[in-house]
């Protein structure tokens, strides 16, 4: 599973909308959409914020 698939899976698993993620992380909905579609990769700091909100480890997103 690719990083963008893992980001989308993790968000859906916690049942959050893009707006909810934006409110909790400060990451814009358009950026989140780009991460989930594989159009752009998140920075490490963004990935850390997503991991905290999604209750996952950073390694969940990075492991093959």
Q: How would the blueprint of this fold be written?
A:
Elements: H1 3-14, H2 18-25, H3 29-37, H4 44-54, H5 58-62
List keywords for this structure.
single chain; 64 residues; mainly alpha; 5 helices; 70% helix; globular
Span of the ends, CA to CA = 7 Å
* Structural class designation: mainly alpha
Helical content stands at: over 70%
**Strand content range:** under 5%
Quick one: biggest sheet? Answer: none
Can you characterise this structure?
This protein is an all-alpha fold and 64 residues long. It is built from five helices and no strands. The protein has helices at residues 3-14, 18-25, 29-37, 44-54, 58-62. The longest helix is centred in the first third of the chain and has 12 residues, at 3-14. The protein is globular, with a radius of gyration of 10 Å. The relative contact order is 0.22.
Short description:
With about 60 residues, this protein is mainly alpha-helical. It has five helices and no strands.
């Amino acid at each position: 599973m690719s990083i963008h698939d893992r980001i989308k899976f993790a968000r859906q698993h916690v049942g959050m909308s893009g707006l909810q993620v934006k409110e909790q992380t400060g990451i814009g909905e358009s950026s989140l959409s780009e991460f989930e579609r594989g159009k752009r990769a998140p920075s490490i700091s963004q990935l850390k914020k997503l991991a905290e909100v999604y209750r996952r480890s950073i390694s969940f997103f990075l492991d093959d």
